[in-house]
Inverse folding.
């Protein structure tokens, strides 16, 4: 049936649109005890700045974290903490509320999986050159199953500012570990880097770029406490690695400065296990 407009066309009319809570969804297929779970709530005809509250719960009655925020462009995204006490095999959900609008909705249910136990995190070599394919490995000794999805984040450590994201690589657990290749490309210019001799005259030393990787598995972030200075490997069989492996690009005596792309040569990158 066609819509019929019955009001006059030469006057202003006030129309009221009723707000609606469209969806409340987890953004991952599972939650991990001791981790966080990302979620998103979408609305329609709800103004920017409207208050929203999301409370996590489990089917067995365990209370999860609580998040408050503001709607922006009919959407709100956040993370809810999952306590260690939530049992493996339980299902979790959250309830979203917009108090001033009288709206609420329950999310979908996702299963709770155990907290992963990490055996080691490592690179496959001590040195790498631009254009090499580097293999990085995160090996588990419990808490994961083959097929579990993860994301590997490679980051460049900056001791004077915020660490810089380099790339994000989707991955899956296979054979109790995550193993993949990263194609190393040193993107910054090298022709302006001072030699060690030039820096020593100013009382400074060459600071090699340093890289580390973080594994994100159902809201659990493994390897965030990297230590780019230590060079001995340390593992913690029953918990997360307190440190991560790093790779660095050192200067050498044989090369007065890092070669430029115009010379078609690559700077050497040294990798060391942190401890």
């Amino acid at each position: 049936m066609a819509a019929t407009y019955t009001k006059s066309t030469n006057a202003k009319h006030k129309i009221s649109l009723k707000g609606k809570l469209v969806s409340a969804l987890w953004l991952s297929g599972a939650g991990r005890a001791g981790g966080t779970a990302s979620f998103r709530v979408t609305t329609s005809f709800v103004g920017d700045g409207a208050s929203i509250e999301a409370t996590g719960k489990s089917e067995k009655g365990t209370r999860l974290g609580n998040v408050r925020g503001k709607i922006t462009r009919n959407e709100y995204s956040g993370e809810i903490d999952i306590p260690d006490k939530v049992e493996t095999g339980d299902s979790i959900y959250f309830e979203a509320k917009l108090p001033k609008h009288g709206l609420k909705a329950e999310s979908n249910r996702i299963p709770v999986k155990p907290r992963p136990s990490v055996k080691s995190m490592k690179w496959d070599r001590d040195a790498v050159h631009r254009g090499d394919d580097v293999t990085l490995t995160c090996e588990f000794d419990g808490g994961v199953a083959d097929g579990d999805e993860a994301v590997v984040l490679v980051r460049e450590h900056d001791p004077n500012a915020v660490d810089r994201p380099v790339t994000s690589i989707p991955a899956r657990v296979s054979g109790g570990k995550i193993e993949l290749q990263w194609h190393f490309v040193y993107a910054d210019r090298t022709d302006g880097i001072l030699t060690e001799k030039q820096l020593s005259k100013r009382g400074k030393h060459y600071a090699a770029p340093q890289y580390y990787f973080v594994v994100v598995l159902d809201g659990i972030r493994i390897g965030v406490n990297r230590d780019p200075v230590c060079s001995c490997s340390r593992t913690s069989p029953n918990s997360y690695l307190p440190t991560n492996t790093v790779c660095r690009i050192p200067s050498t005596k044989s090369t007065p400065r890092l070669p430029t792309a115009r010379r078609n040569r690559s700077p050497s990158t040294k990798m060391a296990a942190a401890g």
Confidence is low (pLDDT under 50) at residues 227-275. The two ends are 72 Å apart (CA to CA).
